[in-house]
Every structure is written in C-alpha cells, then in structure tokens.
C-alpha cells in the first residue's frame, strides 16, 4: 500500500515567482502593443493635422473672397445710389426746362393768335360792310371801357394813397396824443406834489400858530405863578419844593 502511494506521479504547482514572471511578460507584451498602435496611429494623426491646415487655408481664402465680393457690392451700391440721385436731378432739370419751354410756347402761341386776329380784323374792317362796322363799334366800345378801367384804376390808386396818408396822420395823432397824455399825467403829478407841499406848509403853519399860542399862555401862567409866590412873601428859598418850582418857572419856555 505504501509502495503504491510512492509510485504515484507528483503534481507541479506554480509558485509566487512564476506568477510574477508571467505578469511581467504580459506587461511587456502590452507596452509593445501600445507602442505599435502609437506608431501605426502617428501617420493618421499627421494626416489629420495636414487636413485641418488645408481647411483653415481654404476658409481664409473663402473669407477673403467674400470680403472682396462684399466691398465690390458696396461700391456698386454706392455707384447705384449716386446714379439714381443724378438721374433724379436730371429728370427735375428736364421737367423744369420742359415747363419753361411749354410756357414760352403758350405765350408765343397767344401772341401769334393775337397778331392773326388783329390782321383778320384789319382785313375785315377794310371791306366796309355791316360786319366791319359792328367790329368797329365793338373796338370803340372796348377802347372806351379800357379808358374807363384805367381811370378807375387811377382813382383807386389815389384813394389808396389817401387812405395811406390818413393812416399815417392817424398814427401821428395817436403818437402825439400819447405824448400829450404823458405830459398831462406829469403835470397832474407835479400839481399833486405841489398841492401836497402847500397843504403841508399850511398844516405846519397852523401847528406853529397853535404852538405860539400855547407858549404865550404858558408864559402868562408862569408869570402869574411867580407873582403869587412873590405876593405871598413866602421864603421859597428855604422850601426845596417851592425853590424847584420857582427855578423852573424862571426857565425860558422857548428852550423847553
């Protein structure tokens, strides 16, 4: 039994060292694979960069073309606006000239018609018939009416001139009236001031007369008091109150 167990083959189990070796080998394989992938992707990356540079150059060129087209279009627009303004101005000039020519043509046509009518009337009047006499009477009436119209116009101008003169005189009188009114107002003001001054003088004179009367009455009363004190034979010098009264009565009333 022990021999059978000894005869059995021994099974190999990997150790820790073998596991590390296998891990290092796998790592080296991964690094080599990454390097190979990076080496394979390098040309593609360069191609992408070159494509981006070409796109950038194309975009720059397109932008330059667009800018040139926009500037050219702006110049065209400016020229178009200038041409439109010039055309409009030319149209206005031609319309003005056409209007002047039309008016001149109408005036010349009227003058020609007037000359033709005058010539026809002269030829008609030379025939000396009823129509010519009627025309002659009509012409005379027209001349008479024209003379009356001229006379009326002259009278109207004279009336207008007279009206203008009247308005001027009215304005002059109005100005003179204002000046006179101002003078009257000034004179009245001076008269009022003079009257006030006279009234003041009169009032002061009345007051002065009253004051004179009062002074005279006061002087009389003072003399009466002095006479009474002297007649009473009182020694007023010894009495202070009588002394003060007597001395006060001796003062001049005009100096009070």
What does this structure look like?
This protein is an all-alpha fold and 256 residues long. 90% of the residues lie in helices and 0% in strands. It has 4 helices and no strands. It has helices spanning 2-7, 16-126, 130-231, 240-250. Helix 2 (16-126) packs across helix 3 (130-231). The longest helix has 111 residues, at 16-126. The relative contact order is 0.02. Mean pLDDT is 77; it is low at 1-23.
How are the secondary structure elements laid out?
Blueprint: H1 2-7, H2 16-126, H3 130-231, H4 240-250
Summed up, the helix count is 4
Counting helices, strands and paired strands, the structural category is mainly alpha
Strand content: under 5%
Number of strands: 0
Q: What string, H for helix and E for strand, traces the elements in order? A: HHHH
Radius of gyration (CA) equals 71 Å
Intertermini distance: 180 Å
Overall geometry comes to: flat
Poorly predicted parts: 1-23
Query: Quick check: average pLDDT?
Result: 77
Sheet with the most strands, sense and barrel status: none
Q: What is the helical fraction, as a range of percent?
A: over 70%
